[in-house]
Amino acid sequence: MALVAQSATFIHQYISSFLHSKPLIHPAETHPDVILYAIASRDASTAAQAAKQYNITKSYGSYQELLDDPAVDIVYVSTPNGQHYEWTSKALQAGKHVLCEKPFTSNADEAKGLVSLAKEKGLTLEEAVGLCRHLN
């Protein structure tokens, strides 16, 4: 399975530099069945920088270029929140399995539409929800 990071934005979600992004990539890069194959950003140089830093084979300056790559099996959508529905829908239409960062969509109708599309295409669609255990 080839896993791709659809957006270099995910690197910036919790901090504005690349200094602490390793915890976001490490689980994927250490899994024996996952290949970190490609990364895309709205800016080609940002994608290229992240690809070089994390030994990712391909970098793209647009999300659509990534979705057009037949070697891509699954994408992690971590674009800005308002773009989750758009790019998750496009990824499913392109035949890609999708792990979408939260919030999954802006409303229930969008979520239902994506779930229906994934079922229709026989694809896996998941929301990236982290579970925390709070001990008192």
TrEMBL record:
InterPro entries: Gfo/Idh/MocA-like_OxRdtase_N, Gfo/Idh/MocA_domain, NAD(P)-bd_dom_sf. It is an enzyme of class 1 (oxidoreductase). Residues 28-125 form the Gfo/Idh/MocA-like oxidoreductase N-terminal domain. PANTHER family: OXIDOREDUCTASES (PTHR22604), TRANS-1,2-DIHYDROBENZENE-1,2-DIOL DEHYDROGENASE (PTHR22604:SF105). This is D-xylose 1-dehydrogenase (NADP(+), D-xylono-1,5-lactone-forming). Keywords: Oxidoreductase. It comes from the Eukaryota. It catalyses: D-xylose + NADP(+) = D-xylono-1,5-lactone + NADPH + H(+). Its EC number is 1.1.1.179. Belongs to the Gfo/Idh/MocA family. One of its GO terms (molecular function) is D-xylose 1-dehydrogenase (NADP+) activity.
